[in-house]
Amino acid sequence: MTRTVKATAEDAGAAEEPAVNAAMIVFDKLPLSDTCWSLLTGPDDRIYAAACTEHTGGVSAYLLRYTPAEELGKGKLEYLFDIGDAVGEPAHNGRATQCKVHYCFLADPDTGILYGATHLSGGPRGEPGYSWFGSWHEPHRSFLGSFLFAFDTRSDRILWTDMCYPWEGSRCMALDHRRGLIHGVAFPRSHYFVYDLERRCHTDYGRTGSVNPQAIWLDSRFNAYTTDDFGNVLRFNADRQRLERLEIRLPCAAHSDGWHNVVYDVVEDPRDPDVVYGIPWNLPARLFRYRMDPSGGVGEMADLGPALPGQPYKETATFFSDHVGGLVFGQDGWLYYCVSDMVREVWDVVSDRRCLLMRMDPVTGRTEKIGLLKFGDFRAAYVARSGITSGGRILMGDVINHPSRLYEYQPPTSPDRPTAAVPLRRWG
Amino acid sequence: MQPIGTDPDPMKYVQPPVSPALNDPAVRRRLWSRSSTYVGEGYFVCRRLRYTSQYKEIPDGSSAITSLTVGPAGEVYGATSGETAHVFVYNPRPPFDAVALLAVLDGETDIRRSLVWEKEQTVLCGTRCTGRPSPDWEGGALYRIAAPGFYADAVQEWPRGMGQVERLCVPVPGEGIAALAIDRLRQRLYGLSDRTGTFFVYDLAAASLDVRRPVDDTWLFSENLMATPDGLVLTAGASGHLVRYDPQTDLLETTTVQVPSYPGRSLYARIDSWVYDAASGRLYVGDKADGLLYWIDPKTLETRLLGKPTARIRIRALTAAPDGRIFGMAGQDDDVASMFVYEPATGELRNLGLPLSCIEEKRYGFNFESAATGAQGELYFGESERSSRLFVYFPAYKAPATCCGNPPTA
Q1: CATH topology of domain B38-151+160-394
Q2: Which residue of A has its CA nearest to B366?
Q3: A3-409 has which fold?
Q4: Phi/psi at A404 (nearest 5 deg)?
Q5: In chain B, where are the structural domains located?
Q6: Which residues of B touch A (CB under 8 A)?
Q7: Is the peptide bond before B17 cis (omega within 30 degrees of 0)?
Q8: B234-242 own/partner pairs: CB under 8 Å, 24+ apart
């Protein structure tokens, strides 16, 4: 049975933002799971999520599917399969585990296939952790590589699996379903690669830097984009098969030199496939709008300001205490996202967590706090990715809780904002 | 595998018993902090391949530093491989501390182990082509590049110019140049072609070329030429047999001496990198087959295996500190580099870890194909990536028992 918790009126504290009217869906049958990095609306309009287990050795990621119901939190949660078993790398084999799917779920609208690729960081069974550099090519414990699986959402069958990048994990991916190519960035060496779905092999295009970019996105011609360590935009030119650095950067705070301004999350403008909205993985994170030029130009970058306006400078802020993710367009045209705004990294102190659900009007640039993701005594800390169904239901993937979980939210309708369909996300 | 859609098997999540201490985050953090992966002895800085931040770097895809050499004044010359080969100079002294581009060799793609300092502000390099050559490619060429020198200031004003490029010859038509070495005393440049391993001699004073024979009839050879100050030149042929050229006799001879290798592995034994240590008069060599480190006495041809410093199978960059320590980078292309040091005084061979620069840019060093020692004892390692930096390593030294007459504090 699925355990769900709904926010109540008491969750709205006097001195802080109100609780979001949302539901929490807990992966009770996977008690050791601790993160849900990857969440995507599948080609079948259902929500696919990976229950990842990073902090306990010897456990693989699990694929789950959630089908919303009319009432928040009452949808159907299905535990589909153990990904380690599926790709032939069971979690107890002594190697670093296939413990995660990071930003590597991909939906093919033509075939109904959901692709997923695995990532590392979970230690071998019985070990307290995994050192990816220290175990590089180590024949017994080393992570063997990132495995890709093709799951047919129409028949609920795994069609095939293959190693898409050896010895490393896949951090983020995008699907060019027209050419049958998957673009990826590997971890820990940050190499950009392209996997050919027909030939079942990858081509390595070299290193992007030292900090993994957390997203790859596409324009209307399926040129792929990501960033280097300083937020310089890198474009994989689909026609020339070439990775090129563009003379344009993601915005960053004036006090920063731009280091670590790698892209974190990006969503397509529902009205224009050549425009994306995104956020870097930086402090304080600033929302951006990037109008791409598929014909070869560098495009235009607009700084939309801090994701959490008015947030004071915090000397002790970290990428875990202050974080922005889970970007998704609602059918009302607002850009929804989650902001972690905590005084410290509070993985273990639930009462100190603050994760705000916010939204921005892309027309005016105005932002609004919707409220805190808070459920009784439980508070969310961090959301990495979100998805939306055709019914307008927004699902958010939680990071750092045992077991891992989802949050479900229904944006209110407004008569002055007509609803519009949101395109299927083409990247992880 | 369980059928799709069935609930997870709870038995899979039963964990082996562990100490409750491991549930304490502080204990886990301490465990991690004690197993640092990175080089923590000495420190790295990395320099972008540009003059000042107003300039663009050597382009991505053309910046892999595959040859390094140092002039007597301390200037560091480098050559790159990729889509277009570039030659640059790094001046470590204030007010520069900057890389100046000297040449863009259009039509040339690779300069590997083939850059030598000839005379003041002048270097020589040899090119090759590792991809498919263009139809009009004659073969790897020798180039002389004269640098304009550093003058004025690189802080407030920074005038500078490009180098002058002179194409000398194509020593072995249809083949590239695998390695170069120079005998400045005799004004000779020695080279190896990259397919047949043909040894050639270029007389710098007379501008004349003398092409000899392949160093091994099988065309199996090491793509390195090791030169000593008195003019001996060494390489290795098939099965690691040393091949020596003696300028006194003008003879190129294949010796019976084999370089060290694991049993059954001499077929793959190649000299991957080398450095001459003036203090001992020995050549320290990094092995390509298994990542072994050994030395060769160039006069007696005595060899001594020192060990295998890391788990990697290649040692592609090797250089010597002024105090005789030998530093190297192990790891093949597409690997994670592992740095090591050999201390001749104690015979200790230590794996130092993964290079990581935290100055100018926080950057892991994964791939290195060249190394050289600077005038003040700093060590240079040429990164060979799609987008590369010049890594500078400052080795740690043992502090004296007292500092400025005061006892050391705790």
Answers
A1: Methylamine Dehydrogenase; Chain H (2.130.10)
A2: A189
A3: Methylamine Dehydrogenase; Chain H (2.130.10)
A4: -70, 170
A5: 38-151+160-394
A6: 1-2, 4-8, 10, 12-13, 15-16, 18, 22, 25, 28, 31-32, 35, 37, 60-61, 311, 334-336, 354, 361-364, 366, 385-387
A7: no
A8: B234/B283, B234/B296, B234/B298, B235/B179, B235/B192, B235/B271, B236/B269, B236/B270, B236/B271, B237/B197, B238/B267, B239/B266, B239/B267, B239/B269, B240/B266, B240/B269, B240/B270, B241/B216, B242/B296, B242/B301
Any idea where the domains of chain A sit in the sequence? 3-409
The ipTM (two decimal places) reads 0.92
Minimum-distance CB partner of A133 among B10, B13, B354: B354
Nearest CA in chain B to A133: B37
CB contact under 8 A, A243 and B60: yes
Q: Name the A residues in 236-295 with CB < 8 Å from any B CB.
A: 243-245, 259
What string of pLDDT tens digits covers the 410 residues of chain B? 889 999 999 988 888 888 889 888 788 888 877 778 999 999 999 999 999 888 999 999 999 999 999 999 999 999 999 999 999 999 999 999 999 999 999 999 999 999 999 999 999 999 999 888 989 999 999 999 999 988 888 888 787 889 999 999 999 999 999 999 999 999 999 999 999 999 999 999 999 999 999 999 999 999 999 999 999 999 999 999 999 999 999 999 999 999 999 999 999 999 999 999 999 999 999 999 999 999 999 999 999 999 999 999 999 999 999 999 999 999 999 899 999 999 999 999 999 999 999 998 999 999 999 999 999 999 999 999 999 999 999 999 876 555 444 444 44
A210 CA to chain B: closest CA distance, Å?
Answer: 6
The verdict on A88 touching B (C-beta cutoff 8 Å) is: no
